[in-house]
Design brief:
alpha/beta, Aspartate Aminotransferase, domain 1, Aspartate Aminotransferase, domain 2, 2 domains, seven-stranded mixed sheet, three-stranded antiparallel sheet, 14 helices, about 15% strand, binds pyridoxal-5'-phosphate
Length: about 400
């Protein structure tokens, strides 16, 4: 068989077999609408209610605090626009970071068009948001702080508990996009103290097209999707029963094996990073050097003098699937906002590749990828007019 190595787990993950099997009946025999008042409906409702309890348990929430959505992007949109709508009379200032996923970033950009003011906090050279900067940015009219739990491009794990304390010290609501962190980092929403948290199933070996927003009981928030009485009248739309069931099974599986899986994936990543640094000159290793503050699966490099797109193309030809940064913006040729924010020069940012490992990868995958990468970078640099051999 042709070689095919998947190193893009931050974009999406393969569906867990257990999740797939748990979902299957809800596509066929158990097709009932979970909101219908008959035996078919009750069967669906029971499955959704169990799934809600499982997801809640995984993050230390109560089932009544979990609202299923159609994806992580929807959860982010709801959190931000819901607070904006509910508290606009109190204030119109929102604080986020410069390195948020487009689901948060473009949502804030859109709110600016509707009269909201947004502060995009800068980050340091490893992508960390500072509690002091946040403290300085808070104003009397600040209604929301939204800072991601872990960055999708460079793997930075933000000090969420501390940032949340700062926001709450001023009575400001705190949301975190935990789409990359969930299933990779163990956390408890009550310990973190956050008011809202977004997650997405397909990032932790669950199905695509289903996510959840944790909303702390007692928090007032506007509806995002108006419609029927689903999700306790907070989010209209017929429940995606198979999706919700698959999400819960995948999350439960991820939580049970979290430490082992994280250690294994990190060992592959660390081997890869060591080999790349030892064998290729003129590179930047982007993101935190302290692996305890970095997602276990993430490695991000800038290769000077060459284009990321050319590297990706060569890797793809050799059967290695990686990413030039965020899958969401790879169609555009703009350099990554995240890399520019941590101080990578524009030209260098263009030569960047993200490798994100998963639990099905092997040491052989790592070693083969390093070999291909070393050869690719050597060949592309030889053709590059910018490159001067040392
Ligand atoms: C993937 C991702 C999202 C979007 O989730 P979808 O379910 O694909 O909409 C949001 N935030 C982060 C950090 C992500 O990695």
């Amino acid at each position: 068989m042709e070689k095919s190595i998947y190193l893009d787990h931050a974009a999406t993950t393969p569906l867990s077999k257990k999740a797939f099997e748990a979902m299957t009946p809800y596509f066929s025999d158990a097709f009932g609408n979970a909101n219908s008042q008959h035996v078919y409906g009750r069967e669906g409702a029971k499955a959704v209610s169990e799934a809600r309890a499982t997801v809640a348990r995984a993050i230390g929430a109560k089932p009544s605090e979990i609202y299923f959505t159609s994806c992580g992007t929807e959860a982010d949109n709801w959190a931000i626009k819901g607070i904006a709508a509910e508290y606009a009379s109190k204030g119109k200032h929102i604080i986020t970071s410069a390195i948020e996923h487009p689901a948060v970033y473009t949502t804030c950009k859109q709110l600016e068009k509707f009269g909201f003011e947004v502060t995009y906090l800068p980050v340091d050279g490893e992508g960390f948001v500072s509690a002091e900067e946040l403290e300085k940015a808070i104003r009397p009219d600040t209604i929301l702080v939204s800072i991601m739990f872990a960055n999708n491009e460079i793997g930075t794990i933000e000090p969420i508990k501390r940032l949340c304390e700062v926001a709450h010290g001023h009575g400001v609501i705190f949301h975190t996009d935990a789409v990359q962190a969930t299933g990779a980092v163990r956390y408890d929403v009550k310990d973190l103290g956050v008011d809202m948290l977004s997650m997405s199933a397909h990032k932790f070996y669950g199905p695509k097209g289903v996510g959840a927003l944790y909303i702390r009981n007692g928090l007032k928030i506007g509806k995002f999707m108006t419609g029927g009485e689903q999700e306790r009248a907070h989010r209209g739309g017929t429940t995606n029963t198979p999706g919700v069931v698959g999400m819960a099974v995948a999350l439960d599986e991820a939580m049970q094996n979290l430490e082992n899986d994280a250690a294994y994936v990190a060992s592959l990543r660390d081997r890869f990073v060591q080999k790349v640094i030892a064998n290729i000159d003129d590179i930047l290793y982007n993101g935190p050097k302290d692996t305890s503050k970095r997602l276990p699966n993430n490695a991000n490099f800038s290769f000077r003098y060459i284009e990321g797109e050319s590297i990706l193309f060569s890797l793809d030809l050799a059967g290695v699937s990686a990413s030039s940064g965020s899958a969401c913006s790879s169609a555009s040729l703009d350099p990554s906002r995240t890399l520019l924010s941590i101080g990578v020069p524009v030209g260098t940012a263009h030569g960047s590749i993200r490798f994100t490992f998963g639990k099905h990868n092997t040491i052989e995958d790592v070693d083969y990828t390093v070999d291909v990468l070393v050869e690719t970078v050597r060949r592309l640099r030889e053709m590059s007019p910018l490159y001067v051999k040392k």
